[in-house]
Amino acid sequence: MEKFNIDAALQKLGIAELNAMQQESVSRYSEGKDMVLLSPTGTGKTLAYLLPVLQSLNPEDDRVQAVVMVPSRELALQIDGVVKQMKSVIRSLSCYGGRPAMEEHRTLMGVKPHIVIATPGRLVDHLEKRNIESDAIRTLVIDEFDKCLEFGFLDEMQHAIELMPMLGRRYLLSATESSKIPEFVGFTSLIFLNYQGENEEVASRISVHLVKSPVKDKLETLLCLLKVFGQQSTIVFLNYREAVERTYKFLKDNGVGCEMFHGAMDQEHREKSLYKFSNGTSNVLVSTDLSARGLDIPEIDNIVHYHLPLNEDAYIHRNGRTARWEAEGNSYIILHDEESLPEYIDDAPEFFIPKKLPEIQPSKWATIYIGKGKKDKLSKMDVLGFVCKIGGLTRDDVGRIDVKDHQCFVAVKRKILRSALEKMKGQKIKGIKTLFVEAK
What we know:
This protein is α/β, with parallel strands linked by helices. It has 3 domains: 6-199, Rossmann fold, CATH 3.40.50; 205-351, P-loop containing nucleotide triphosphate hydrolases (Rossmann fold, 3-Layer(aba) Sandwich), CATH 3.40.50.300; 365-438, 2-Layer Sandwich (Alpha-Beta Plaits), CATH 3.30.70.330. It has helices at 6-13, 20-29, 45-56, 73-86, 101-111, 120-128, 145-150, 154-162, 198-204, 219-229, 241-253, 267-278, 312-319, 380-389, 417-424; strands spanning 34-38, 66-69, 92-95, 115-118, 139-142, 169-174, 190-194, 206-213, 234-237, 258-261, 284-287, 302-305, 329-336, 350-351, 365-370, 398-403, 408-413, 428-429, 432-433, 436-438. The strands form 4 sheets. Strands 3-4-2-5-6-1-7 form a 7-stranded parallel sheet, with helices on both faces. Helix 6 (120-128) packs parallel to helix 8 (154-162). The longest helix is centred in the N-terminal third of the chain and has 14 residues, at 73-86. It is globular and about 60 Å long.
């Protein structure tokens, strides 16, 4: 059987060349030592460890050989998606809370993954029940290690490592330097790669602006700002879930195409919000700092700090959502008269005064929800063929297609949404009758 090929994987991902950090990680992985990589958000840490780890796996061995521990289900799904996008001989699976463990167990038996990407608690559950056998697991990656500690996963991480006694390699990745790495991680010989200086390079591509609000309640100022942005992709950060929900409702009531995202939302709602934001159906995401880490949504034009970040790390990670992969971006800080800039913002931002206030225009994209998915043997090509043939769409009418286990989300041009849904009503996809509706 063929082995994993890095050049072929990069070609599938549409990446011409690795950056310096990724190149050093790939080359030094062959030294066989444990590694710690510090590098800012948006610099491509996922590929820095995925490529050498996947290259080290034996595709002829159907057992789990590597585990990636992550702090959130969104990051688990993102990493799993990157592996699958490579279309290599290596099989992967993401495991996380919020869905039945028994369903994941059945999927584990069917997929026989070489690498599992999991949240700490769910990984412990599968290891304890022997849904995942640990005898072949030689490599452990802990992605966003600092965030795992911040989220209180220390006990689960320690227990998971205890349940994998045959581990040989540890690879920790973080955007910030932890004061101390716990002994249970079990480092022996260590390679330490510090690319935190890249923060300055990322920051140089971000233009920071100061927006003054005449009153404490900044909603009207935010609305004016979003009107100026038009259809640009924007994340609005707030510090509290209740504030996210209040702001989301205000913007919706004023015609802004937006989604909200915070930790108290159920998994299905969170995933739907991200799909609609990623595929352009909604151009504004109103969020807590949950979306400041672990989401790889390209081409975000603007970051808006509705609330001041709690600390410098939060500020850096928020801004890191834009200016990714050498792109440029904008960061806007909304302040009222009783607020002042924190000390960690050294350079005084330029004042930004919204001058033109056009009417809010709806996004050109809408999202169709299909009530079947991978478990029903549907693929992206099946979905594309169906919406084009039955819905009367052309390829240019269709945007991003996301096929999940039990559902699909399809971005289509809003102007033909109603006619397409009418034609699809009552029809069968691959002989299966299901629901076709606009995703609200």
